Amino acid sequence: MIIIKVGGGKAINWDYLAEDLSSINEKYIIVHGANAFMKEISNKLGITQNLITSPSGHISRYTDAKTLELLTMVYCGLVNKKIVSCLQKHKINAVGLSGADGKLWLGIKKETILSKVGTKTKIITDSLTGKVESVNVELISMLLDKNYTPVITIPAITKDGELINVDNDRAVSVMAKDLQVKTLVFLFEESGLLEKFNDPTSKIDRINKDDLEKYLESSEGRMKKKLLGVKEAFAFGVKSVYFGDGRIEKPVSQALKGNGTVIN
Amino acid sequence: MIIIKVGGGKAINWDYLAEDLSSINEKYIIVHGANAFMKEISNKLGITQNLITSPSGHISRYTDAKTLELLTMVYCGLVNKKIVSCLQKHKINAVGLSGADGKLWLGIKKETILSKVGTKTKIITDSLTGKVESVNVELISMLLDKNYTPVITIPAITKDGELINVDNDRAVSVMAKDLQVKTLVFLFEESGLLEKFNDPTSKIDRINKDDLEKYLESSEGRMKKKLLGVKEAFAFGVKSVYFGDGRIEKPVSQALKGNGTVIN
Predict the structure, then answer these.
(1) At a CB cut-off of 8 Å and minimum separation 6, what does B144 contact?
(2) Closest by alpha carbon to B179, among B98, B233, B103, B252?
(3) Which pLDDT belongs to residue A16?
(4) Tell me, which fold does domain A2-263 have in CATH?
(5) ipTM
(6) Which residues of chain A neighbour B93 with C-beta distances below 8 Å?
(7) pTM to 2 decimals?
(8) Cβ of residue A165 closer than 8 Å to a chain B Cβ
(9) Contact check, Cβ <8 Å, A73/B69
(10) Is A98 within 8 Å of chain B by CB?
């Protein structure tokens, strides 16, 4: 089984991806983002998206109740159902789910979050964020057994039924653990992991998993989080991770052939 | 098995509903609307919601591509996940799905729609609306067998993977047919079917199903459509339909006791 995580950029070509999926001879699960659409709709609704920088330098979305509502609209509504429709057009029997449905992604909420503002550290107590701790293996297996393709996105849910924002990339590593998945594919709007930010000629072809820490230190923003998820995934038993370009034809096949960045 | 259709008004009390559901000794499926939220979000986004009056007097939403996107955001995103979260808080293992997921509600698109504007009749060709023709019984049964509660809403999907807006109430009657359901409960923001519009004292306690045509003629707007769905449901083998108040404690139990309007 493969987990395919697809970024939330507008240049991702879902038709190419759907065409390619019919050539994949394994079961697969799709996890997707929706960041570009989130920005667009929040601007239209006049909801300011605030970011938090943790003391260790991680940047994440400040998720208050309004932002969480917006997130369910954009991730579970607009984008998830666009993807389901596209996959169905290509004869893939997709079922779109959030991490909340059937407690698919069961998580815990962070009671407090530290936010670095200049030289000061603020304590935030109303952020509806957390992390996924376990996955509903029964529900996913049941769908896969009957040839449905799960298409999953945030939010996750706590045992008390509260919706929480989590990091999709890190949720993927918990899924890999619980479902004993050995292969992960991450598609985004780059040809692979770039040595130099925004320089497509600096693509790294291969990374030894033992060197991930080095790349983690030098990476920034969303890529840092992606690599953190990848590092966790290896600790959870994943054998190979493929980064690839979600804008090109046959994106999964190309990534699996090693035409993006291979980490193993 | 019971299908419980819950209206999309803001006064529906989902906590009361969820508490009540634990007392129901049968399997059930929930279908929900989101009309009030749709109005609110479309106003905020500056998307005008146009209505179409058919030559026979039925009023429906004019669903162009923009409206369909908004509809997925509000119905499948915001409201569906709010409901899933509420049910999960009450220990009901809800799984939120749209009619598009796993082709749950497979429908056909209307190629043209007639719209009465004053004395003229306009032909509309870009409306993404249609009707549900069949239901994915396998997917629903699979979920119910494992004690998941399906929470379903629009849109439906065509065999070609196109999302279409359909009438939730009429989709309920097709579900009743395919799943051989004999009992339907409709909860909304009234105490039952009212003889006089907006007059709560005029609640009708019981309607003979053979008299439905009479009530159809005298009803208007959304209630007319609801009664049309009910009429179809009886033709499809349903035995009893209960209209009840979605704002009160124990709304399903109260409706089943006959405290709203019973049609049989």
Answers:
(1) B1, B27, B29, B150
(2) B233
(3) 98
(4) Carbamate kinase (3.40.1160)
(5) 0.95
(6) 102-103
(7) 0.96
(8) no
(9) no
(10) yes
